[in-house]
Amino acid sequence: MTVTQTRPPLPDTASLRRPAAVRLAWLAVAVVVLSALCVASVAFGVREVSIDDIFAGLSGDTSGVAEAAVVARLPRTVLAMLVGAALALAGASLQAVTRNPLADPAILGISGGAALVVVAGIAFFGLSDPYAIIALATAGAAGASAFVYAVGSLGRGGATPLKLALAGAASSAAFLSLVTAILLPRIDIVERFRFWQIGGVGGATWDRIGVALPFLVVGALVCFACARGMNSLALGDDLAAGLGQNVARTRVISFVGAVILCGAATAIAGPIGFVGLIVPHICRLLVGTDHRWLLPFTAVSGAALLVAADVVGRLIARPDEVEVGVITALIGAPFFIWIVRRQKVREL
Q1: Which residues does UniProt assign to the signal peptide (predicted)?
Q2: What total number of domains does the chain contain?
Q3: d(Cα 328, Cα 338) in Å, to the nearest integer?
Q4: Cβ-count burial of 269 within 10 angstroms (0-12 exposed, 13-18 middle, 19+ buried)?
């Protein structure tokens, strides 16, 4: 008698997705949390203000000290939102393009490369035009990422996630050491870059935000436009190509969007690490892996994380401040170790 073996049925992919209602609920929760954090960012600092002071400041009243503090904190809050959203989007895009769970602008050395080129341009060539500085940071981010990928591709097995992470960490340390070496003998600019080098949003102005905003919007739109293509990349190059997806073009365009976001964010706020690593992983657990939902949720959550880090940095050392780059590093380093131990740096 012939025994026919049947293959177990494949799981229904629809059952593996998050329902749209669940995703909308989480997105609404993220927006509410971000709104509450923005209120806290305006309210808390060296001088605490009341709700009445907040409304008075928002209406344009700067007659009192509290109202003036509210007005001064508004651009700082907006900058933290924009930079957090940009870094989170860049991290999610890089993870999709490289299928590397450890991909992050700071870990891969992209932020460090952007910082090095900006500091070198200002110290050696006297650059002062803000648009030129952002363009220079974007070019530095692109060059650093190409260098890290080339180094990580050496040897057997090509560019594995672990090799890319190690090459990026070593390159980032080298880039930031060179930044310090350039700044130390130049007393005239070292004070200007002392806090920028750590990564922070203090001293934000509407002019600085206005310069960076077009670059951030363009980078975000490019990433959002590639969301469907990122979903195809998650299936593997061969299957994505079989479905009609131009794999090389999707990778290049998504990468360009991530580099623009990283370059502009680094130029305006300094090299802030781990936002692009932490946020996408948490967001995948909540809304799934569909990038059409993941990218907007990542942007809102990244903005919330950096605003929260800024508020915490202002509260734990009053009347002084701890820069957001320090806070995100304290959160991100244990998270990085957890990802390595849990996933054993498999591909996404």
Answers
A1: none
A2: 1
A3: 15
A4: buried
